[in-house]
Specification:
alpha/beta; Purple Acid Phosphatase, chain A, domain 2; four-stranded parallel β-sheet; four-stranded mixed β-sheet; 19% strand; globular
């Protein structure tokens, strides 16, 4: 049983392909690739923390169909695009837990999980990590600040290769992304 993380999959959202420069021709290709990536890595007894924005711009029935295909125990840390789907009990039932924020211990380290990047979190000054999503791969003014925070980890789908990653992989993905993306 292993633990993984991902955020901002945006299943069904065609504009995210252009907005975040995703390497897919259309939403069908994107959805299929992310489901295949997910299920190739995640076993039924693994836990995946999804830090928000699972689906967007699709009907609830389609969101249920997609999420029900994903392996593992899914824990949702809600994002700004999740509220609509969470009104449906059938969708809520696909998650083992749903929370706005969550503090966990992973590989012996503290981590604070939230969809949104925040600059001060519980136990920050004791070495805790902050794992977040929301900003995708945007190189905004906020990114210039975040980039200098070693213990802030962006788990956006674009950063982690459109597949859930474990904690050590998440650190490596962020080191690589920061090295390749100097702020202007």
């Amino acid at each position: 049983m292993a633990t993984y993380f991902i955020s901002d999959t945006h299943f069904g959202h065609d504009n995210v392909i252009k907005h975040s420069a995703r390497p897919f021709a259309d939403i069908e290709e994107m959805n299929e690739a992310m489901i295949l990536n997910w299920n190739a890595k995640i076993r039924p007894d693994d836990t995946v923390y999804i830090l928000g924005d699972v689906c967007f711009k699709i009907k609830t029935e389609e969101a249920i169909r997609i999420v029900s295909k994903l392996n593992g125990h899914k824990i949702l840390i809600t994002g700004n695009h999740d509220r609509r789907y969470l009104k449906d009990e059938r969708y809520r039932a696909l998650f083992d837990e749903i929370a706005d924020m969550k503090a966990i211990t992973i590989d012996g380290e503290w981590a604070h999980l939230c969809h949104y990047p925040i600059l001060d979190w519980d136990k920050k000054f004791r070495g805790a990590w902050h794992i977040f999503g929301h900003i995708h791969n945007r190189l905004s003014a906020e990114y210039a600040i975040i980039r200098n925070e070693e213990r802030m980890l962006n788990v956006g789908a674009e950063i982690v290769g459109y597949t859930p990653v474990n904690f050590r992989e998440l650190i490596a993905c962020n080191v690589r992304f920061k090295a390749e993306n100097e702020p202007w």
